[in-house]
Every structure is written in structure tokens, then in C-alpha cells.
């Protein structure tokens, strides 16, 4: 792995030392299942404008399974159309969602701050139809978006297909009512199993990505670190990420645990300080 580590052999050695130290610390503190994070300071803007769309990065060693998560799905109206398909018996998404509600119903619920807090606490992950996703910052507000707490993920209800048969409404407009449970399941599985980050428009921001847990073996955590760096710096992923990133853009790379200090993996410059958990890009 040292010879194929994207950040170089020196960084590989630092990564192993730091990850080992984090694992030992978390276990000694009685937190053997605590999450381990990779934090990367970048010297470019990761987005041209605020879109609040989490970018999912595939990992060799998956973080979790759908069955371990409570998931809220926010659909287009009417929710019953999507609920009937996604919760049908023997559908791959039969038990995937804790609740499926329409954007219209969510707007009604959002009038009560207590109801929003309840939704926040009861659901691990929020996903939304890509057609309603852009309306959610105004509906869910700081409860979900401030400090990047539980920013909703975007789902496509069916694979894009120019030849797909659309429904013509009474107003003579074409509507895409397709809902492919298997396609939805694959996206949800990727969201739950892989890591993600929300890009910001600020130069010098820190992005934080979960890479595994303190009860994992070091090699698996190191491989996930390498997956992230290779994905971010691969020109082919530029469109998915929203920015062109290369190794020189990664000012510093560190690992940290829950409630622990950051330990070094790689550092390109000492001029840019960390601003971890900066929520300045999430104003309302």
C-alpha cells in the first residue's frame, strides 16, 4: 500500500502512526466503536454557488447498512404514489424508509419548530427526490443545515432515459412519474455505505469525511483514506465533485476521532490554518 498511497510513502507512514494512535486513544476512553474522520484543508473553492448537495465518495470498506439506519424520504406530491411502490411487499426498498412524506406535508410540519426537531432526532439520514431537493433549505432551515448537521441527500426516482414514456397532464404538460425501487435502493445503499461531504464556496475550508470506526483494523482505514484522496484528485470526477482538485490543493490532511485532536497525515503548507466545522457557508 505504501507505494500506491496517493499522498506518498511518507504520508502513508504518518497515516498509520496517527490512525493507530487514534484507535488506541478511543479504546482507552471506552469508545471502541467511535467514528474516525479524515479532515482535509483545501485552498480552492469546492463550489461556485451554494447547492447544499452532499457529494458521495465510494469506499472499499463500507461504513454501514441500510437496515441499521432510520431514513426519512421527502417526495414529490402525491407521496402515496411513491410510498405504494417503495413499500410494496418484496420490493428492495420495502423496509428501507422509516417515513415517506411529501414536500407539501413537510412544509406543513415545518411550521412547528418542535416537529422539525422531532424529525431531526428520529432520522439518521434524510433523502429527497431530486426535483424537490432545492426547496429544502428554506423548509428545514438551520435545524438540519447549520454546521452541516443533516443535509438531505438527493435521489433520482428512476434512471435518466430520453425514451422513457411520460404522462401528459390535463394542462398538456409532460410529467415523469416513474419510480424504480431497485434504482432507488442502489442509491440509498451507496449513501449509507460510503462517505460524503457538502462542498463550500469558501477558500481554505476544511471538509470532514468519515472513514470508519475505532474497532476496525488499521489497513481498512488506510485504504479508505486512499480511496478518498484518489477520488477527489481524479479529473474524471470533476463534474461530480464540482471543482478541479489536485494534490497541491490539499493543504493539509489529518485524521481525528470523536472528541479527539487531529493527527497528521500530510501537510503541503503551514500558511493555511484549519477552520473545521465552519458553518459560514450555511447562512439563511
TrEMBL record:
Disordered: annotated span: 263-284
Sequence intervals crossing the membrane: none
InterPro entries registered for this protein in UniProt: Ribosomal_uL1-like (IPR023674), Ribosomal_uL1/biogenesis (IPR028364)
Pfam families for the chain: Ribosomal_L1
Protein name: Ribosome biogenesis protein UTP30
Species name: Candida parapsilosis (strain CDC 317 / ATCC MYA-4646)
Amino acid at each position: 500500500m505504501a507505494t500506491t498511497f496517493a499522498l506518498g510513502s511518507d504520508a502513508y507512514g504518518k497515516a498509520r502512526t496517527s490512525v493507530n494512535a487514534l484507535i488506541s486513544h478511543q479504546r482507552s476512553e471506552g469508545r471502541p466503536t467511535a467514528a474516525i474522520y479524515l479532515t482535509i484543508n483545501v485552498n480552492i473553492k469546492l463550489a461556485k454557488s451554494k447547492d447544499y448537495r452532499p457529494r458521495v465518495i465510494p469506499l472499499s470498506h463500507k461504513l454501514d447498512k441500510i437496515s441499521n439506519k432510520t431514513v426519512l424520504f421527502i417526495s414529490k406530491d402525491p407521496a402515496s404514489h411513491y410510498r405504494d411502490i417503495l413499500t410494496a411487499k418484496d420490493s428492495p426498498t420495502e423496509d428501507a424508509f422509516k417515513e415517506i412524506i411529501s414536500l407539501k406535508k413537510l412544509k406543513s410540519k415545518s411550521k412547528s419548530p418542535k416537529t422539525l426537531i422531532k424529525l431531526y432526532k428520529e432520522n439518521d439520514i434524510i433523502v429527497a427526490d431530486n426535483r424537490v431537493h432545492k426547496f429544502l433549505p428554506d423548509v428545514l432551515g438551520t435545524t438540519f443545515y447549520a454546521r452541516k448537521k443533516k443535509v438531505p441527500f438527493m435521489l433520482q426516482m428512476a434512471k435518466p432515459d430520453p425514451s422513457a414514456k411520460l404522462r401528459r397532464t390535463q394542462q398538456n404538460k409532460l410529467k415523469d412519474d416513474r419510480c424504480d425501487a431497485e434504482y432507488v435502493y442502489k442509491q440509498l445503499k451507496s449513501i449509507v455505505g460510503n462517505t460524503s461531504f457538502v462542498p463550500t464556496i469558501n477558500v481554505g475550508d476544511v471538509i470532514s469525511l468519515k472513514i470508519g470506526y475505532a474497532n476496525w483494523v488499521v489497513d481498512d482505514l488506510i485504504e479508505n483514506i486512499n480511496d478518498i484522496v484518489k477520488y477527489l484528485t481524479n479529473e474524471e470526477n470533476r463534474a461530480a465533485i464540482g471543482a478541479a482538485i489536485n494534490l497541491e490543493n490539499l493543504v493539509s490532511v489529518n485524521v481525528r476521532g470523536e472528541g479527539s485532536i487531529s493527527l497528521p497525515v500530510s501537510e503541503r503548507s503551514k500558511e493555511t490554518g484549519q477552520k473545521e466545522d465552519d458553518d459560514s457557508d450555511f447562512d439563511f
